[in-house]
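Section 5.1 Outputs to date
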Amino acid sequence: MASKGELGILPMATDHARTLPFDLYQRYSVVAKLASEIGKSKGRKLKVLDVGGCAFALDGIRRFLPISEFLADAFVVVLDTQDCQFPNYVVGTGATAPFADGSFDLVVASDVLEHVEPDERGGFVEELSRVSDDFLVISSPFRQDATLLAEQILWDYITSALSVQHVQLREHLDLGLPDKEQMASLFTDKGYAFVEFPSGNVYRWLDMMMARHYVIGLPNGREIVSKLDEFYNVSYSQLDVASPGYRHVFVCSKRGTVNVLENIRKDALAKTRNVKGSGEAEPTVPNLMMALLVLRHSIAAENEHRQQIVEKERHVAHLETLVSQQEKTIADLRQALKDYADNLIATRAKLELTESDLKRIKSGRLLATVMRLQEIFRGRLDARQTN
């Protein structure tokens, strides 16, 4: 097992951090490095605010604070809308942060901006800068062709192959991703110094996301996903900074602490050069874009084919229902016909019996009449003979 400091494991991260979802690990590993660099300039324990920092565990039920796995040496407050019970946790929104001006050395919003309404994003960033005494870190997927296409492909895959919806991704598609140039202009207009760099190559992000969502549906899928994340986190995450990035990180200094920003910029550039010069075969952007387009069309075609099958199955089921109803109607008619025939036979038998009775009755009455007449004639004959 690799020790901390080897491969991609951050020295300041806990053992549990290595099993976090790879994209969550990427976000907070960046925050941890930035906090370390900023902490050197302050020479004391940092006061950090993490906005939107309450996350769900892999089981989708339990919640935890990811930043606590990375910044054990800082005083951290987490602000989020979720109702959680944690020390130094405040329920609220970054749009109206319940803190005084300049309350924190560092304010962080990792992959939060894209979930803010587009017309409220500028005010959101200004509010975060208000409660920061100096540094502000905002990371987000920003609008670019590769990211838009990758998210759409992932959405198509999840909805068609897994028949579920990804709530966060749905918000990305509904609200639209932030504009990177507008973010830069916001800091420039305020006169803030800032640096910006990519985090998480978009093609690898798509590969990992699709792999995770495929594996999660397997037996023991969550355990496998946890191991997949750990493998990526400890072996590759710290090198995954090649452009085009899935997300970009803005590090802003209100006080113009350019020496810290310059160190951050140099570190980011060095890692980007290391990736590009590592000898790893990197597909060209046009080829990858074409592959993503082909994949998306394939997913769309598969989804359409599945829909056609579903419609045909519904039609067949409807026909089977009609046939079943017709068969029941025929069976009911046959039973009614049988009952009618049985009733007819019984009625005929009763009629024959009645006719027989009538014949007997009629025969009996005729015999009685004849016998009566005989008695009368015999009586009259006897009377004549006597006279």
